[in-house]
Amino acid sequence: MRTIIINSIPGVGYTAAMTSGSSAIDIRRHSRGARADLADQVAIEEPLEIRIAHTTPEGRAHQSISITMRTPGNDHELAAGFLYTENMITNRDDIVAVETCAENVVRVELHPDIVVDLGRLRRHFYMTSSCGVCGKASLEALHASGIDTLDPGAMAIAETVLLAVPDKLRGSQPTFEETGGLHAAACFDANGDLLVTMEDVGRHNAVDKVIGRLFIDGQLPASTLGMMVSGRASFELVQKSLVAGIPLLAAVSAPSSLAVETAREFGMTLVGFLRGGTFNVYSGSERLKT
Where does 157-289 sit in CATH, by number? Predict the structure, then answer.
């Protein structure tokens, strides 16, 4: 059993070391009628079980709360970010320690004073499982969780700076370069410098890993940072960024309708199709400077 007390990493520019993010396999490549047997790299996808140790009326309990398919690496950040974006914890002192207690199993030791609302967690899974809950109910749930409208003056970024962020993100994706099969997320400042970059097979996991690192380093709420994601911008990614206090979410691809509605409701700047020197602004254009 390996126990790790969460510590800060000094400085900025934290890029995840994805040493186990890919695996070599033998394939047969077909090209213009020719065939060749060769080795290829594929992104690893394995389940991660997140457990918590928490206080109940009957005493201390150890309970599994989530199993997610993810790319191994930065599992402690993923667990911390997941608990934070699900509003199960609110500050760094809520976590006493994180331990890798078995292969693909992480346990988070919560402070004895923390009361865990497992019913709320189950309700959120219901809200985000595409089971027919309307957008109005989703927005009401966010308001009920205590999320406030973002400060429009907390961050401003030049358009030229924002346009440079996707290339920086792509340049910090070592496992994507090997496999072509991973998503990435990064937080960046008003100068366009990437502070934390993470890769994963799931966009939501990559975002949780970034937010988990910020949480561990005591940098939340991140009211002066933006979040850049590969792929599309879904409601879930907007929700996670809102919980972290991040005022700007930019995506390489399109946002969903509920992502746009949510961003407008809470005053978030939402940018889509940020690539090739162009982008669309769906909400919060006041944060973008010419």
Answer: 3.40.140.10
Amino acid at 129: S
CA–CA separation, 167 and 229 (whole Å)? 12
Burial grade of 162 (CB within 10 A; 0-12, 13-18, 19 or more):
buried
**CATH architecture under which domain 46-144 falls:** Roll (3.10)
Stated pTM of the model: 0.86
Interatomic CA distance for residues 15 and 54, integer angstroms? 31
Q: Is 131 a catalytic residue?
A: yes
- Between helix 75-85 and helix 235-243 the angle, nearest 10°, is 90
Tracing tokens 């561990």 back to the chain, one arrives at: 216
pLDDT tens for each residue of 105-152: 999 999 999 888 776 665 555 445 444 455 677 788 888 888 989 998
State whether residue 242 is helix, strand or coil.
Answer: helix
- CA distances (Å), origin 40, targets 61, 126, 228: 44, 38, 28
Of 101, 131, 134, 187, which residue is the catalytic one?
Answer: 131
Cα(182)–Cα(45) distance, rounded to whole angstroms?
10
Q: Where in the sequence of the chain do the CATH 3.10.20.10 domains occur?
A: 46-144
